Every structure is written in structure tokens, then in C-alpha cells.
């Protein structure tokens, strides 16, 4: 039941990334031969999604180790490529642990491949755990892209959707377009249609109306960083979905591997929220859509407070109605 798409490929002496900026109408690959090119691919969104950028960064360190470049400089440029998803720093810390032990490039490669493989295994576990929470013939809403493109395979929230569909528990997915970068309209739609999972695209602004007028069982989303108290940073618009879900009696599920938890941060208030250039809002594919002198504010993540979350699904288990005590008990 693993997804066929493999967006991160180790090619022996370089890293190949499926360019997510041009999907779904073009399948183009970006070849990276050093950590700076990987950092550029992460910052420029050729590869995106919290677990996927952690995996790509791990391979980035391997590339520099292969050519005996400056490990510290490579780590720094990768760490600074995007601020919100903690998986990036988590993967770098794990690679640093191996490097400190005096590892060569081959040993670093083995660790990067392990991080990659473990992510897929964790997603398959979370898929089963999350699918078990859904009623038969569930109708769900998902946001952004949390599938094979965003991870080591299968996906987090989309992994739960895939697993639920495989056991016949899923009747219908509504996926938001996810303005402004359109991860939902371009990437989630691509993954869902490739596997014939029944799905309908909605405008982000249609979600509350959908919950008010049709029976929706769960909103299922991924995460970029989960604080110790369960507050969850995810793609901008997630918080609005959680507020609407609570208003309409719809359950709200967050699906994320243990590498997405940041237990050093007690609440979501301390999570750094990435702000990207106004141009992503004022232009579409290079063509202006707002007046030329229009300014814009473009935060690309928001924080959903833990009390709006009914369940956090992690590979270690399910936390219902998350609190700091429950998160620390499961994560250790
Ligand atoms: O800006 P992006 O596309 O990297 O944001 C991705 C998300 O917000 C995902 O929901 C999150 O990383 C979880 S992916 C499994």
C-alpha cells in the first residue's frame, strides 16, 4: 500500500528531487550536488512538507561529506532554509550525532536512508491508527499536501486517508486548494486522482459552508511543529478549519511522526511562523493579480490551539484531547 510516487531519490552521487513547483502538469527533476543546492531547493519549495525537507536536508549533508566540504557550513545553510517545520532541525541533529561519532560519507548516507525509510514506516503505522478512528463511509476534509510528496512515502494526514480508503472506510475527501501556493489543488489533487480516491476540490473559503451544510466526520491535517502542550503549527488556514470544525461538531485530527514534536517549546506561541514574499499573494505564475503597488502579509503557517484538536496521531500512539502531560507521556 505504499504510494508509487518517490519525490526524493538518492542517485549514487547526487540527490534528485521531483520539482513540486511545476506539478501536476509537468514532471521535472532538480539535481542537487551539494548542501547549498539542497537548501535552495528547500527554500524555493522544489521540495516541501515537513518530513520531506528533513529527509532532503539529511541527504544534503551526505553530499557535502562526499566532497569533504565544511560540515558546519552545510548544516547552517540547511538549518536556515525554512524556519517552521522542526523535522528539518530534528534530522540535522540526528545526522550531527552520527557525524560527531567520526562518521564518513558512507555512514552518513546510511543514516539519511534510515531516516527516509523510517518515515515511510511511521506513516504506514499512523495510517492504520488514524483510519481506525474513522467511521465507515467517512467524509473528511484535508488541507495542504501531506502525502507521499511531503514525506518519505504514503503520507501523514493523506496517509490516514489512503489507509482508510484501502479498508473501505472512506466515502469522500474534500481537499482545500490551499492558497496561495496551491499545495491542495496541485499536489494533493494529483496524488488523490492517481489512486482514484473519491475527492472534490474546494476553495479554502468553502470549508465552513461545507461543514454547515453536509455531514463531515473529520478534518484531517498534518503538522510542521507540535509544542509540548499539543498546540500545532501547520499550513495557513488550518486554524480556521479547526475553529469551523468545533463550531459544527466535526472532529479534528492531526497526524504527525515523533520528529514533528518539539518538546522544548511549551506552547505554540513560541513556534516561529514563516512569512514569505508578498509576491506569492499579489501574483499568479508571474502575472499580477492585485494592483501593482499593493502590499501583502503572507504568513504561511498558523497555530491551532490544542483544545481544538480531538486527536493527535503519531507512530507511537494516539493522543486524544491533547495536554502537556499526555504529550510528554507518549513522547517520553
Ligand atoms: O509550506 P509547505 O508546503 O512545506 O507546508 C506543508 C504543510 O503545512 C504540511 O501540512 C505539513 O508539512 C505536514 S506534511 C506531512
Could you tell me how far the N terminus lies from the C terminus, measured between alpha carbons in angstroms? 30 Å
Estimated radius of gyration: 19 Å
Helix content: 25-40%
Question: Poorly predicted ranges (pLDDT <50, ≥5 residues)?
Answer: none
What is the CATH superfamily of the largest domain?
Translation initiation factor eif-2b, domain 2
Cofactors, ions and other ligands in the entry: 5-S-methyl-1-O-phosphono-5-thio-D-ribulose
Q: What does the largest sheet look like?
A: 7 strands, mixed
The top-level CATH class of the largest domain is Alpha Beta
Q: From the 3D structure, determine the CATH topology of the largest domain.
A: Rossmann fold
DSSP strand content:
15-25%
Oligomeric state, counting identical vs distinct chains:
single chain
Beta-strand segment tally: 16
Structural class: alpha/beta
Shape: globular
Succession of helices and strands: EEEHHHHHEHEHEHEEEHEEHEEEEEH
Task: Tell me the count of domains.
Answer: 2
Q: What is the tally of helical segments? A: 11
What is the CATH-assigned architecture of the largest domain? Answer: 3-Layer(aba) Sandwich
Site (Transition state stabilizer): 144
Protein name: Methylthioribose-1-phosphate isomerase
Family: Belongs to the EIF-2B alpha/beta/delta subunits family. MtnA subfamily.
Catalytic activity: 5-(methylsulfanyl)-alpha-D-ribose 1-phosphate = 5-(methylsulfanyl)-D-ribulose 1-phosphate; 5-deoxy-alpha-D-ribose 1-phosphate = 5-deoxy-D-ribulose 1-phosphate
Amino acid at each position: 500500500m505504499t504510494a508509487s510516487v518517490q519525490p526524493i531519490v538518492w542517485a549514487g552521487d547526487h540527490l534528485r528531487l521531483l520539482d513540486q513547483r511545476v506539478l501536476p502538469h509537468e514532471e521535472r527533476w532538480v539535481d542537487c550536488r551539494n548542501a547549498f543546492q539542497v537548501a535552495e531547493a528547500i527554500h524555493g519549495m522544489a521540495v516541501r512538507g515537513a518530513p520531506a525537507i528533513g529527509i532532503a536536508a539529511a541527504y544534503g549533508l551526505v553530499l557535502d561529506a562526499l566532497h569533504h566540504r565544511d560540515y558546519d557550513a552545510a548544516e547552517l545553510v540547511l538549518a536556515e532554509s525554512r524556519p517552521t517545520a522542526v523535522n528539518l532541525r530534528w534530522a540535522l541533529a540526528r545526522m550531527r550525532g552520527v557525524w560527531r561519532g567520526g562518521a564518513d560519507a558512507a555512514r552518513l548516507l546510511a543514516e539519511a536512508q534510515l531516516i527516509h525509510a523510517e518515515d515511510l514506516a511511521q506513516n504506514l503505522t499512523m495510517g492504520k491508527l488514524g483510519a481506525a478512528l474513522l467511521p465507515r463511509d467517512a467524509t473528511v476534509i484535508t488541507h495542504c499536501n501531506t502525502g507521499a510528496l511531503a514525506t518519505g512515502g504514503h503520507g501523514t494526514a493523506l496517509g490516514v486517508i489512503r489507509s482508510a480508503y484501502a479498508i473501505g472506510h472512506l466515502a469522500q475527501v474534500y481537499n482545500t486548494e490551499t492558497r496561495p501556493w496551491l499545495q491542495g489543488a496541485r499536489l494533493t489533487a494529483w496524488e488523490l486522482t492517481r489512486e482514484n480516491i473519491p475527492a472534490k476540490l474546494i476553495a479554502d473559503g468553502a470549508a465552513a459552508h461545507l461543514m454547515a451544510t453536509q455531514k463531515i466526520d473529520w478534518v484531517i491535517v498534518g503538522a510542521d511543529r507540535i509544542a509540548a502542550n499539543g498546540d500545532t503549527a501547520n499550513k495557513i488556514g488550518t486554524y480556521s478549519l479547526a475553529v469551523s470544525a468545533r463550531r459544527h461538531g466535526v472532529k479534528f485530527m492531526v497526524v504527525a511522526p515523533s520528529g514533528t514534536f518539539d518538546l522544548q517549546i511549551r506552547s505554540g506561541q513560541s513556534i516561529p511562523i514563516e512569512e514569505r514574499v508578498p509576491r506569492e499573494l499579489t501574483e499568479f505564475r508571474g502575472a499580477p493579480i492585485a494592483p501593482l503597488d499593493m502590499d501583502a502579509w503572507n504568513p504561511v503557517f498558523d497555530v491551532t490551539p490544542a483544545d481544538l484538536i480531538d486527536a493527535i496521531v503519531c507512530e507511537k500512539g494516539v493522543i486524544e484531547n491533547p495536554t502537556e502531560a499526555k504529550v510528554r507521556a507518549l513522547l517520553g
